[in-house]
Design a protein that fits this description.
The chain is α+β, with helices and mostly antiparallel strands and 167 residues long. It contains three helices and ten strands. It has two domains: 93 residues, no CATH class; 40 residues, no CATH class.
Length: 167
């Protein structure tokens, strides 16, 4: 079961990276709210786009963000904030287990079905050799599904060079 929630983070001048709550699945939308309660939509950039920014210390009103999907996810703003803002993000969250969290694995939840399928496959090698092939296929499918979640989903930006038209 999934629910859509809203979270906020206080953004301070000169700090670009912030940890987000670790109980969410994925970001849906990110906006930056200034002290006058005016919202500005931020656009997502991929890891490679963020890494190619030559001067990450540029300050100003942030217009883009890089979302690092780890066990404890982080969001990095660019440009580095020049004032205090509130980062408002909407995210999809799954319902928590009834567990006491003692036996929780330190892995993103999207890999849990893969881990279960992998465990079943490795147990079948020892206990049920007749099921190995189907469990191996299931394990590989679950891994591909989880790995595909990490693919960049930022829009493609193409800028044509039209300088030859002015000659």
């Amino acid at each position: 079961m999934w629910t859509v929630n809203q979270g906020t983070v206080s953004v301070t001048s000169g700090t670009a990276s912030y940890d987000l709550a670790s109980d969410y699945v994925d970001l849906l939308e990110v906006v930056l709210r200034n002290s006058s309660s005016v919202d500005f939509t931020l656009t997502q950039m991929s890891r490679s786009e963020y890494l190619t920014i030559p001067n990450k210390a540029t300050t100003g009103q942030p217009s883009q963000y890089y979302f690092n999907r780890q066990v404890t996810p982080t969001i990095t703003l660019w440009a580095t904030p020049d004032a205090s803002y509130t980062l408002v993000y909407y995210y999809v969250r799954r319902i928590q287990d009834a567990d006491t969290l003692i036996n929780t694995t330190d892995a993103p939840f999207r890999f849990l079905p893969c881990m279960v399928a992998g465990l079943a496959y490795y147990l079948a090698i020892k206990k049920a050799p007749d099921r190995i092939q189907i469990l191996k296929t299931l394990y590989e499918e679950e891994f591909q599904r989880a790995a595909a979640e990490d693919a960049n989903s930022t829009p493609l930006k193409l800028t044509p060079n039209i300088s030859y038209l002015s000659t």
